[in-house]
Design brief:
The protein is mainly beta and 253 residues long. The chain has three helices and 14 strands. The radius of gyration is 25 Å and the shape is elongated. One of its GO terms (cellular component) is plasma membrane.
């Protein structure tokens, strides 16, 4: 509770205690260190009820050393508040209460100020006159054939599947009966970040950990793909799920 007053006054009533419904959600950077010896993480906060919460961070970050299984040896290495650096949380709180630091008061975005991080459409609708989308017409039917997960198209053929972690995979790609590629697939997706504060500059994500395959969603015929597309259902399972998840129309040709 040591940071309650600072959070409440600085961030328009938001704290890490959700008694008022205004809850700060804490997140942490990855990887947790850049060598096999390191176990450091920057802990940062966002407004948990904000749409697009990652775009509404607050300027409070804590660098924690959490190496080893003995939590009594864990400690705080650095604290940043309003572009000011402190060695400990106690130092920050003491100087805040003594009014010897520059305080900040960030109001909660409301109305139009909160829309930029949402999916809510803004501006004039396009096109100005409502029109139906284009249609694909196949006068003689589909030029490809599907047998299970095997696809033939003119002189080409291949098999496909969806990997839970890395997403779509295509196997045994042949042209005129000759194998051209054994496997064509995404192995990993790396996202490296940068920014003024240390929190974004420490983030280097391998997004396969999120499950690119399991994160796919149902597609809508005529919106996400042509009306003539062939759809496939997807069954995924993650180790902490009690049952497998079967979702419709998550792959298509």
């Amino acid at each position: 509770m040591i940071l309650y007053k600072l959070m409440y006054e600085s961030y328009d009533g938001y704290t890490y205690c959700a008694t008022s419904g205004k809850c700060l959600q804490f997140l942490y950077t990855a990887p947790m260190g850049f060598t096999g010896e390191d176990r450091y993480s920057w802990i940062y906060f966002t407004r948990g009820d904000a749409i697009g919460q990652y775009l509404h961070p607050i300027d409070l970050m804590i660098l924690a050393d959490h190496g080893g299984s003995d939590i009594s040896k864990w400690n705080i290495l650095e604290v940043i508040y309003n572009n000011q650096t402190f060695d400990t949380i106690d130092e920050l709180v003491a100087k805040y209460n003594n009014n010897t630091i520059t305080k900040i008061s960030i109001k909660t975005p409301k109305g139009k100020d909160a829309l930029f991080s949402s999916y809510e459409r803004r501006g004039d609708p396009q096109p100005s006159k409502p029109m139906r989308g284009p249609k694909l017409y196949e006068p003689d039917g589909q030029r490809y054939t599907v047998n299970g997960r095997h696809v033939s198209y003119m002189s080409w053929s291949f098999d496909f599947r969806m990997d839970t972690n890395s997403g779509m995979q295509i196997y045994d790609i042949k042209f005129n009966g000759e194998r051209i590629v054994y496997e064509l697939s995404l192995q990993e997706a790396a996202a490296t970040y940068a920014g003024y504060y240390p929190e974004p500059s420490w983030n280097n994500f391998l997004d396969g950990a999120w499950g690119l395959g399991k994160s796919s969603y149902e597609m809508v015929r005529g919106v996400d793909c042509p009306d003539t597309a062939t759809f496939f259902d997807l069954c995924t399972h993650v180790r902490n799920w009690k049952t497998a998840d079967l979702s419709q129309r998550r792959m298509r040709i």
